[in-house]
Amino acid sequence: MTGRRHDPDRRDRIIDVCLDLIAEVGVAGISHRKVAAAADVPLGSMTYHFAGMDELLREAFGRFARAGSDGFERRMSAATDLDSARAAVVAIITEDVFGTQRDLVLTHELYTLASREPAYRELTNAWMARSRAALERHFDPVTARMLDALIEGLTIHRALDTEAPKAETVTEAVRRITTPG
């Protein structure tokens, strides 16, 4: 008789594997069965840990969104003055956000869900609020909101455009938004 396998990290592994699969095949291409197989867990573990696919997706995308806003927080908390805060924003745009193809796909899969489903919109709104709060360490709320939109737009251009914006262009855009008029 075999005993129950001790696997205290199983739930976390399932969430991580779910994110990897979403990055590989998209939300439409995953299922409980596929996630269980990729995570090397019995199918019954899926229903033990998650009430359904929607709960797994919300947990996975919640983890992903928190990691993204944690990155904003790390960059912005390291800044000590206006110049270093501007440099941090440039680094967020040119290095951090969509730093990998996986991040690009996961972000856009989340955006697609959020455009249709209010529960996912709550995740994206919380992500944006945390990111803006990090920006507000150095910039007023209106400027932080403009910077957040700039970050979003320029990172999409950087990831998808055949000619990504040059670092000098990003630096100039950040300077213009953060210089009192």
Automatic annotation (TrEMBL):
InterPro entries for the chain: Homeodomain-like_sf (IPR009057), HTH_TetR (IPR001647), Tet_transcr_reg_TetR-rel_C_sf (IPR036271), TetR_C_31 (IPR041583)
Keyword Hydrolase: no
Top-level taxon of the source organism: Bacteria
Keywords, alphabetical: DNA-binding, Transcription, Transcription regulation
Domain HTH tetR-type span(s) in chain numbering: 8-68
Record-annotated DNA-binding residue ranges: 31-50
GO molecular function: DNA binding
Name by which UniProt lists this protein: DNA-binding transcriptional regulator YbjK
Organism name: Promicromonospora sukumoe
Lineage: Bacteria, Bacillati, Actinomycetota, Actinomycetes, Micrococcales
